[in-house]
Queue: 2 jobs
Job 1
Amino acid sequence: MLNQLLVKPAQRTLNTSHLYHPKPRFCLQLTTVAESPPPPEDATVAKLVLESDPKSLAETLSNYSFKWTPNLVDNVLKRLWNHGPKALQFFKHLDRHPTYIHSTSAFEHAIDIAARLREYNTAWALVGRMRGLRRGPTPKTFAILAERYATGGKAHRAVKVFLSMHEHGCHQDLNSFNTILDVLCKTKRVEMAYNLFKMFKGRFKCDSVSYNIMANGWCLIKRTPMALQVLKEMVERGITPTMVTYNTLLKGYFRCGQLNDAWEFFLEMKKRKCEIDVVTYTTMVHGFGVAGEVKRSKRVFDAMVKEGLVPSVATYNALIQVFCKKDSVQNALLVFEEMVGKGYVPNLTTYNVVIRGLCHSGEIEKGLEFMKRMEEHGCKPSVQTYNVVIRYYCDDGELEKGFELFEKMGNGTCLPNLDTYNILISAMFVRKKSEDLVVAGKLLIEMVGRGFLPRKFTFNRVLNGLVLTGNREFANDILRMQSRCGRILRNVKL
DNA sequence: TTAGGGTTAG
């Protein structure tokens, strides 16, 4: 039934339902796709890891003659980035390999993944293991750990990581100090960073980078006066502000909606004969534009060119985004074509901005054309690209087209992430059909199987939906899965 | 992975 619902009957169809699944959990059909070249080896391995039951992973992989190299392992781990438990199972399997030894970078990937899953004990065990093998830890290892602690809401632990570096045989220097400051600032723990900064600025002989990091931190939490204070202090200590310092403050003004102050600051920079650079202009184009001042934004862009500065791809991206958001996609496309005409190579951001703009104005098919165009030009659509188009298809009631793209992701080289699943699951509630809710339940099972932890809200929503549509038994299955869910992450021990 | 400019919805 579901198959018929989600497919246009006249189309030639082919059942591929989740090629990387041991058994199809649900059958969605999609139109025939063109023959594509064989996937790279790391994609094949990633697919096998995703498909295999953890217990049979070793056996599965031994059926193939992969030649394990640091590069291959790194790429597999990168691909499995959104599938943490699976990635760690793979890492663990190779950790027992008779001849292959994990590289520093493989360890750091694994540590990053474990810490992202908040498996801090696992992460530290890996640090110990890499030390035992004399593969680290390196300053980068600690930067990763600190960042994961900070983004996991454990800023104090992040600071501790930095303070304990030397105990793990890793020297603390100005670079690592700047890194911890930046990690804290980027996670909005600016006060904490500032305290640390005040405490150690003498010991590590803080440089302009440290000051710039702090100024940016205050700007990120919209406390520009404090950023100015940092600038003042910097000058008092005889450290010359750089273009980064000025551009940071300029961006800070825009972030606070202080357009006039931003403009004044820019004039002041000019007056003082600052070497105004492409970043300054890009900040202005974006700042004025997203604040609704499209004409001003375009004037700045033109002024830049007139002054002989060459716009970067980022400058074009800013302008294109401004047109998409505050003007029209048609004008944005004109800028896009102008950019291409001048020999620029649009990047992932360019395409994502354009595709989002098109979808937003109801031109999803045209967005899809751009997706093809980017692929033809060697720019692989990212999971965000897919998510945008899938979302708009679903919003438009074109569920089958959304699923078609979802299938394409699974078959190809761009694995779905948590957002992808959430988008699709939400879409399953629109038609209020029993069959759709069963799909939602199956998606939920699939995402858990791949190591994503759905929010409680998602579980409850699907459960309620199933119960209301008379799928009580299936709801019970899901309920049992939910209770197992908490244990899934804990089961991955190294 | 020591700092600044372009992607994200409701």
Job 2
Amino acid sequence: MRSAPLNSVDLVLCTPHGRQLAVLLVRDASKRARERWSLPWAPLAAKQAPEHTASGVALKASGARASWLEQAGAFTDDKRHPGGAAISVAYVGVTPARARELPDGAEWFPVAKLPLLAPRHRAMIDAAVAQLRERMDRAPVAFRLLAPMFTLSDLQEVYELLLGRRLHKASFRRALQAAFLVAPTDEWRSEGRGRPAQLFRYAPRKRRGARGGVRFELLGG
Amino acid sequence: MRSAPLNSVDLVLCTPHGRQLAVLLVRDASKRARERWSLPWAPLAAKQAPEHTASGVALKASGARASWLEQAGAFTDDKRHPGGAAISVAYVGVTPARARELPDGAEWFPVAKLPLLAPRHRAMIDAAVAQLRERMDRAPVAFRLLAPMFTLSDLQEVYELLLGRRLHKASFRRALQAAFLVAPTDEWRSEGRGRPAQLFRYAPRKRRGARGGVRFELLGG
DNA sequence: ACAATTAGTAACCAATTGTTACCAATGTCA
DNA sequence: TGACATTGGTAACAATTGGTTACTAATTGT
């Protein structure tokens, strides 16, 4: 019987943490001094769809279902995996910020302040965060980072966090209005100071088929 | 000695073919009646970066280097691989349309008229084409589908092919001008009828840092 | 009551994009 | 040779979108 699995499914689970994006890491008891943290992972089961495995890893490591999950690629190069896997299939997931406690040994780390990790896990996190940023205008990533009910300021904060730059309130809301993505609810939330904010939910409606010309967003290279 | 490799690298190589995108398939001699075509692939070598393997597959199957190559994900589900691989890492590549002959047993197929393929290969092609469309505004995919020198009408045709819709000539060129992505050359090409067109080359210059607000391009779901 | 703070919107102006229309250079065909 | 069909290329105007300023609203703290 082998002790090291051949292939693995590794998960980069993200959540908003203050004004930063945070990643879930688990304490890795089997490791020596240096690398005490790692991404949650599981051996790849041949008989199970890898998304299903990733989904299970998310549940076990964070205590809740991931609200969005997508493959982020295969990592097979020389960078070694903590469990000795040959091929590691990485998944990106998101989950709303919660007050609830995490399972033992798991902790959120802001992406800017990660501890020392196995090189393969570093590469996965970089790829996962990049993929989140690219996917946000195709998939409802931003909405899945929030609870089902949210204020427009919450939503704007998530967009700013993912885009890495500030947005103008009026422009943001005008664009959101035009996109028919959210619906107001009857509820309001008071954060202490300031006027209470109305709560919205994600409720995408119609859609005028992909308008606009080309955007040459390409940098050099 | 095992006859079937455990893991594979599979390549979806694309090129413009008339007004359609075409994919390179190779005749699979080892197969029985039904599935006579497959994507070019190779076993995954543990000691070699998988991109390198993919690059070699492109060279062997098409007779030329791929001008752009990127991983398109890992495919591991129940859909079986022609070579019996457990995990298949798919790569998308592009190459300019050429008059030159293909190596024996290889052929371009328009994506709309594919022959019967292994389910895993169908899934890879779908993912690869989708990825091409998504990447084109981040990576110079469109330019790599063209020869080093091209007319602006050629370029527009590639954009239309990838976007799946017609673009306005004047708007397209104005946007292109503003993006500083191409430089004119001294050469001109005459296609027979009509005024000769000036040839351009891809020469990305400066870049004003990511302007603009948010675009909620999100559909339903 | 009033300052401070956060939510939300109107309205103006600048920039971008869609469109129409035109001129230029070539091959075709009477 | 001289329309004219065909493709390349651009100017200029109209419509739309996006950035910004500035305002009003509703709440807490002093």
